[in-house]
Amino acid sequence: VEWHYCNLMYVTLSHVVETLTGRWLGDVLRDTIWKPLAMHSTYLSLQEARRGPAHLASAYIWREDQEEYEKLQYVSARFLGGAGGIISNVLDYAKWIKCLINESEPLSKTVHRDIRTPRMISDPEPSLTSDVQLYGLAWTRTTVHGEVAYWHDGSTLTFGAEVYWFPNLKNGIVAFANGALGSNPAEQVLVHRLMEVKLNVPASRRADLMKR
């Protein structure tokens, strides 16, 4: 009846996958998506990520009173599960976006079509940068300066992600940041500027996200 974003649904879906397969979600994702796409620096376990070859980024929060950054503790990936527990980097995640853009394996054409099919209107009002927004299988579908776009952002409060992909342009942008509470606004400014440059949007029509 009414659209609400809800992390509990992702937690529930994680439980469904584990119940139907009898396996831990991290193993299912690795075998079905990460390994086929050569995403070798992607994990659903903080312990595995620490044992991996890649450097693990730290998150920081700005303390206004002390005028300094404070390093924060990691949140358990297992606790977050499918609602934001995946540990990755932009190079690995770009491989996932390429899969979605090109409708390639390991997913079937039917699954790709299902991913792109909206289920509900999430926001009927145009925003500074996009038109009416529709929501499907974890992706918001809209148009940005006339181009069809799918996007999703998210935050664990300590880390943030901003992802856009344009199926018709065969182009996408992945941005990750490690500033608590401030990651997503910073990423939005960067990502939208990159999109406007790619779409050849004149300066007079660009959204002033810094001002917002």
List keywords for this structure.
6-stranded antiparallel beta sheet; 212 residues; 34% helix; two-stranded antiparallel sheet; alpha+beta
What topology does this entry show?
Blueprint lengths: L6 H15 L3 H10 L11 H6 L8 E4 L4 E4 L5 H4 L9 H13 L6 H8 L3 E4 L9 E3 L4 E5 L2 E9 L4 E7 L4 E7 L5 H16 L14
Antiparallel strand pairs: 1-2, 3-4, 4-5, 5-6, 6-7, 7-8
How would you portray this structure in words?
- This protein is an alpha+beta fold and 212 residues long.
- It is 34% helix and 20% strand.
- The chain is built from 7 helices and 8 strands.
- The chain has helices at 7-21, 25-34, 46-51, 77-80, 90-102, 109-116, 183-198; strands at residues 60-63, 68-71, 120-123, 133-135, 140-144, 147-155, 160-166, 171-177.
- The longest helix has 16 residues, at 183-198.
- The two termini are 30 Å apart.
**Strand segment count:** 8
**Proportion of strand residues:** 15-25%
> Based on CA inertia axes, which overall geometry fits?
globular
Low-confidence region ranges? none
